[in-house]
Amino acid sequence: MQPRDLSAHAPYVPGRGTEEVARELGMDPEDLTKLSSNENPHGPSPKAVAAIEDAAPTVSVYPKTAHTDLTERLADKWGLEAEQVWVSPGADGSIDYLTRAMLEPDDRILEPSPGFSYYSMSARYHHGDAVQYEVSKGDDFEQTADLVLDAYDGERMVYLTTPHNPTGSVLPRDELVELAESVEDHTLLVVDEAYGEFADVPSAIDLLSEYDNVAVLRTFSKAYGLAGLRIGYACVPEAWADAYARVNTPFAASEVACRAALAALDDEEHVEKSVESARWSREYLREHLDAPTWESEGNFVLVEVGDATAVTEAAQREGVIVRDCGSFGLPECIRVSCGTEAQTKRAVDVLNRIVSEVP
Ligand code: PMP
């Protein structure tokens, strides 16, 4: 007995985890600095931790399916109707929900290259396909409406990642407006703002009041430090009010996660501290790394190192885990997540030593 032919479905390649690397290299996980998955190095808000502890007894019952407390709170934050907020297990879950809502078999999505791999994975799971526009056409990974429109051929969904993973570039608002006004009526623009809190540019969520072809993804995994709880959301057009119940996975976002997210929203100080720390770290990385880097508005920096696999492996042996961007189609680059001051300085010391030695 075999599953169906899954050869067209490439597995998701995550940044390497501390335990995996520690086991492989026979090291103590405590000695490793993990800067491979763009997590919050300061951890979750203490308020979120308290909410998780308080919510622990709820795990014997199924969570609410409507997640009303959280959707109302988020709707209030962003000036939306509660029905426009689709809570999901991470932004990954939102990608699946939007795919289910949009794609018929053989429909296509248009996505950035290099880019986040789950867009096309989700499309393919749902019997669609993916084509790409090149974010890497210019040396600076600049994102423009023209780059997208040159490749656009009536796809049902167009993904725009801003700040963009793994380059850190942003799509300026006027370019986004141009896209909203240019694409065909049947196309949904999906603005992925997983790293939105770290950017200097405002969110695109307010565009939902003007354009009915825009959806925005956000997550609690990054600035809010709740990656392990799997909680995120999509902001969708007003006319989609009854679609959530038709496309979501039942009970996919736990009550624990929803209550932690609410508590995290209440701790603005923790988010501000986390964002400020990430901004410091990315500037420090850019100033002190002896290798070309790109300006980033995310909580990570893309670094050109030559042989990314060799550098990633050498850094691991020295206790620093970074992301080899070969899986993004950038085999000469690594992505270094923003860390605490000590982590950032350790990464710079280790990487500078390695880059000077690896040909
Ligand atoms: N979008 C982008 C651009 C990402 O980099 C990630 C995670 N690395 C996600 C979405 C998904 O994040 P999560 O499911 O943890 O919310």
From TrEMBL:
Signal peptide: none annotated. One of its GO terms (biological process) is L-histidine biosynthetic process. Its EC number is 2.6.1.9. The keyword Repeat does not apply. It is an enzyme of class 2 (transferase). Residues 31-351 form the Aminotransferase class I/classII large domain. CDD domains: AAT_like. Its cofactor is pyridoxal 5'-phosphate. It comes from the Archaea. One of its GO terms (molecular function) is pyridoxal phosphate binding. It catalyses: L-histidinol phosphate + 2-oxoglutarate = 3-(imidazol-4-yl)-2-oxopropyl phosphate + L-glutamate. Transmembrane segments: none annotated. Gene3D superfamilies: Aspartate Aminotransferase, domain 1 (3.90.1150.10), Type I PLP-dependent aspartate aminotransferase-like (Major domain) (3.40.640.10). Belongs to the class-II pyridoxal-phosphate-dependent aminotransferase family. Histidinol-phosphate aminotransferase subfamily. This is Histidinol-phosphate aminotransferase. It comes from Haloferax prahovense (strain DSM 18310 / JCM 13924 / TL6).
